[in-house]
Each structure stands twice: as C-alpha cells, then as structure tokens.
Amino acid sequence: MELIEAIRARRSIRRFKADPVPAELVREVLDAANYAPSAKRGEQWRFTVLTSGAKEAFLKMFDAELDSFIEKNGAAAAGSAKNSCRIMGEAPVLVVVWNNGPYGWLTEEHSVAAAIQNMLLRAYDLGLGSLWVGDVYIAYEAIRGYFGKEWKLSGAVSLGYPDSVGASFKRKTVDQVAEFLS
Ligand SMILES: Cc1cc2nc3c(=O)[nH]c(=O)nc-3n(C[C@H](O)[C@H](O)[C@H](O)COP(=O)(O)O)c2cc1C
After folding, report:
1. Is residue 129 part of a domain?
2. What does the pLDDT read at residue 1?
3. What angle do CA 46, 107, 139 make, to 5 degrees?
4. Quick one: angle between helices 52-73 and 81-90, nearest 10?
5. Could you tell me if residue 79 is inside a domain?
6. 117 in ligand 1 pocket by Cβ < 6 Å?
7. pLDDT of 84
8. What is the mean pLDDT of the chain?
9. What φ, ψ does residue 17 adopt, rounded to 5°?
10. Residue pair 7/118 in contact by the 8 Å Cβ criterion
C-alpha cells in the first residue's frame, strides 16, 4: 500500500466486528510505533494491551469512574466519553498508551503522539480499524492507580476489524493551514 493512501484513507472507526485480532497483528502495530521519531531518542511510549477479561475489568472500572465524574460535573462535561467507553467495549483490543519520559517535557508527549499515529497507519495497512481515545483522560489518576503506573497516561487506542466507516469529510486545503514566507 502506498503511504499516501494510508494517510488519506485512514479514518477513526467507531463500529467494530467481534472477530478477534490475531496477536501477531497487534505486535505489528506496536512494532510500527517503535519506529516513530522521539525527542532525544527517548522512545518514551509504553503500552498495556488489554483483551477479553482484562479489557472488560478495565472498562468496568473506567465506566464507574465516568459515572461518578458525571454525577459531580454533569453529562455535558463528560462530552463523548460514554460513547468512547462503548466503542472501547466493542473493539476486541484496547491499547493503553503511556508516556514514561522522565523530564516532563512537552516533547516527550509529542514522541508518544507520533507513535500513536504510526499505530493508526499500520493498523489501516493491515486491514484493521482503529480509534485514538483521548477520553480516558477523564479518569487519569484512577487509570494510573488501576495499573500501578507512575508513567503519564497519554491515551488509548482501540483496534479491531471495522464494521462501518464514518462519512468522509472535507479536509482543509494547504492554503488554509500554511503560510509561505520567503
Ligand atoms: C488526541 C486525540 C484524541 C481523540 N479522542 C477521541 C475520543 O476520546 N473518542 C473518539 O470517539 N474519538 C477521538 N479521537 C478521534 C477524532 O475524533 C478523529 O480523529 C477526528 O474526528 C477526525 O476523524 P478521522 O480520524 O476519521 O480523520 C481523538 C483523536 C485525537 C487525535
């Protein structure tokens, strides 16, 4: 597959089939993450891969955290998080993504974001659907505590075989996002 095809055709997937994802494909996706550029060559990304009961147990905790967040702050404050929780339940694989950068630099987080983008593109290349889930931030401390991690939580990525793909939308043109000075 041409790189530009993956870049242009990859979409966030929010409906997944129940078919399991072979473990080798998950490893391929994570291997692509390892080739991302990283600040000071720090390779700050770390992953916790959840399937089956481990994923269910995690989502039970996350959903309970969401409910107590909504009770305190109202449903509007939770935005799309309940829907993201449903999607993470539907996709057979959930990868929790950590940033273990020791310095607290913003660039450490950028490294992890670059790794996530590699994951999404490789997933597409392998015929998998993916969703980058930032909504896990709502339970930032609870998730770190649940896994006993000192690392920063960067997000999560759902993986599975797509059941449907959302409508495409018009992207900005280069002239809308760039200025050229000479
Ligand atoms: C940092 C980040 C966090 C995101 N978090 C969520 C999320 O929690 N739930 C969700 O449904 N989509 C999430 N998305 C997906 C975006 O909604 C999606 O990328 C955007 O609508 C553009 O659509 P596309 O990915 O199909 O190009 C996130 C994307 C990024 C980059």
Report:
1. yes
2. 86
3. 55
4. 170
5. yes
6. no
7. 98
8. 97
9. -75, 160
10. no
Please list, residue by residue across 51-83, b when 16 or more beta carbons sit within 10 angstroms of its beta carbon and e when fewer do.
beeebeebbeebbebbeebbeeeeeeebeebee
Number of structural domains the chain divides into = 1
Q: Examine residue 106 and state whether it is found in any structural domain, yes or no.
A: yes
Beta strands in 42-182 (DSSP E): 45-51, 93-99, 129-133, 152-160, 162-164
End-to-end CA distance of the chain: 35
Predicted model pTM: 0.98
Instruction: Judge whether 177 lies within some domain.
Output: no
By most ligand atoms within 8 Å of CB, the mutation choice from 7, 66, 82, 133 for ligand 1 is 133
CATH number of the domain to which 60 belongs = 3.40.109.10
> Pick from 92, 159, 88: which is nearest to 124 by CA?
159
pLDDT digits (tens, 9 = 90+) for 52-97: 999 999 999 999 999 999 999 999 999 999 999 999 999 999 999 9
Question: Is the Cβ–Cβ distance between 81 and 138 less than 8 Å?
Answer: yes
Domain boundaries, position 150 = 33-163
Which ligand 1 atom is nearest residue 166's CA? 26
Taking the CA atoms of 39, 132, 34 and 123 in sequence, report the sign of the dihedral they define. negative
36 Cα distance to chain centroid: 15
Residue 135 CB less than 6 A away from ligand 1: yes
